[in-house]
Design a protein that fits this description.
The structure is a single chain. The chain is of the alpha+beta class and 518 residues long. The protein is 46% helix and 20% strand. It is built from 14 helices and 19 strands. Helix 4 crosses helix 12. The longest helix has 35 residues.
């Protein structure tokens, strides 16, 4: 069942209310406690494992000390990214949509539409266990007692925890902390560092041997279905055309009056009708001649001034021969438009549309050749693209890459399974290579995201405690202990307020600007 954003919000609130009552009812049970709807299950079993793992004390201390700059870099990067999102939201808040939907606010696999249920939960469990286990190991390395370990439930398991003795780690009103400031920063950084290292390993394998073991398959896929086409319920974006690897071949089949067969994991469908070959417009720019002429955002151009336009090259050749102020008659799959061109920097005329390439339109169903080789090339280039590649990786589940999978890339599933095949060392694995790819992608991505989020300089996240100790260490050199503590508290409070208010604003911004859609 497909719920609206408001229905999801109501369901979440009701579920949290029921869990709050349940948490109150079972709060007195041994090993179980609750905080509102959140239920904590504690145990002392397994604490001996922490002592055994902490045996290599020098190795653990050396690793965390050398990797501390990663934590600081992650803190700076994610904070700047958050502030950039706030700036963009303030300047040009988008319309409320899937990104701001209540179900997509939290990165809960299966609830968040961009994160797959199975692979997402496997990756999330690995991430949480690695993070908390690392905290516990470093506590024992530094001689800090661990009181318990456990799991956190909210509708379903949402996390794990290691519970150190806070009085030994942070101190209290009567006793100073047992841990030195440097030891405490190592303990608090351990979870983030472990997440980063696991992410680096998983993504290195994904973008290395796994991606290089995939070979493209020539396929034509459905890229969009117009609501008025009559096929909206039967034909979906991403469906693959059967028996043909090129638009020209499909055009010939449809021109002969034969049906085209489409399929995906959810079923099969067929389509027939008069085909139209042209170039696909995926956006009409605001204030452009095309927008002024009333052109929609997505359609196929088939003719310009009675000249056939059947490829991206023919479109570019024609537009390069135009001049500013020239009036063109544009025949499209949604009607005919008269467009007066605006001046372009090279002296030619500009229509003001974004073209994605050659497309075939049959009764409102638009198909394109999936450029699998180019997709693989873009994926393989991410690790070598520096900060731009890292930003692409961060947004991969939500925005896809290079215009491919504009609704996000959730891994090799669905129609993606028909667009690639294993090659080289992976050929004997068959379809299991896609399992490996999805596992590595999501373990890497969620570990990376969890590590970055925990870097944010706000209490109670790890980054908040770390930045507090860093600031206090610097201020102790230039002022008295009392003044340093007062200034540190003020700076940390200001940073926490900035982070929390920024997170809230990025979620509520579209609704504050445009209202709640009815």
């Amino acid at each position: 069942m497909d719920f609206s954003s408001e229905q999801w919000l109501v369901l979440i609130v009701l579920a949290l209310g029921l869990l709050s009552l349940l948490g109150t009812a079972i709060g007195g049970e041994r090993g179980i406690s609750s905080w509102g709807p959140v239920i904590f299950v504690r145990t002392t079993r397994g604490l001996g494992l922490l002592d055994r793992l902490a045996g290599a004390r020098r190795l653990w201390r050396l690793t965390t000390t050398l990797c501390m700059p990663l934590v600081l870099a992650g803190m700076i990067y994610f904070m700047l990214l958050l502030l950039l999102m706030v700036y963009v939201m303030w300047r040009a808040p988008p319309e409320p949509g899937s990104y701001s939907s209540p179900r997509n606010v939290l990165l809960i696999p299966g609830v968040n539409q961009y994160i797959p249920l199975v692979w997402g939960w496997i990756a999330l469990c690995v991430t949480i266990v690695i993070h908390e286990l690392s905290h516990g190991i470093l506590c024992r390395v530094e001689g800090i007692r661990v009181k318990s370990m456990g799991a956190i439930f909210l509708l379903f398991p949402i996390g794990a925890f290691v519970e150190p003795d806070d009085s030994e780690l942070f101190g209290d009103e009567r006793n100073p902390p047992k841990a030195t400031r440097q030891a405490r920063m190592r303990i608090l950084s351990a979870g983030v560092i472990a997440n980063f290292l696991v992410a680096a390993l998983a993504l290195t394998l994904f973008f290395g041997p796994v991606i290089n073991a995939l070979s493209p398959v020539d396929r034509v896929i459905v890229v969009s279905v117009e609501p008025e086409s009559g096929f909206a319920g039967d034909i979906r974006a991403g469906m693959v055309a059967s028996g043909a690897g090129s638009l020209e071949e499909l055009y010939r089949i449809a021109s002969e009056g034969r049906s085209l067969e489409l399929f995906d994991d959810a079923g099969r469908a067929s389509i027939s009708g008069e085909p139209a070959l042209g170039v696909l417009v995926v956006d009409t720019f605001d204030g452009s001649p095309a927008k002024d002429a009333g052109m929609p955002d997505r359609f196929v151009i088939t003719e310009i001034n009675d000249t056939r336009i059947e490829s991206l090259e023919s479109f570019r050749d024609y537009m390069n021969s135009t001049s500013p102020g020239q009036v063109l008659k544009i025949n499209t799959t949604v009607g005919t438009y008269s467009v007066k061109l605006a001046p372009k920097g090279d002296g030619t005329g500009m229509m003001g549309v974004a073209i994605s390439g050659t497309a075939l339109c049959i009764n409102g169903v638009i198909l394109q050749e999936f450029q699998a080789e180019r997709f693989l090339s873009l994926m393989r280039s991410i690790p070598s693209s520096g900060l731009r590649g890292f930003n692409t990786l961060m947004g991969l589940p939500f925005a896809g890459i290079g215009g491919f999978t504009s609704d996000g890339f959730q891994g090799f599933s669905g129609s993606m399974l028909y667009l690639f095949e294993p090659a080289g060392w992976a050929e004997p694995l068959g379809g299991k290579i896609f399992w490996i790819a999805n596992l590595l992608l999501w373990i890497g991505w969620i570990n990376m995201y969890a590590g970055l989020f925990n870097c944010l300089p706000t209490i109670p996240l790890d980054g908040g405690h770390i930045v507090r100790d860093m600031i206090r260490t610097l201020l102790d050199r230039v002022m008295s202990e009392r003044s340093a503590e007062r200034f540190t508290r003020g700076i940390v409070a200001a940073l926490s307020w900035l982070v929390i208010s920024s997170l809230i604003f990025t979620v509520l911004g579209p609704y504050l600007a445009h209202g709640i859609p009815l």
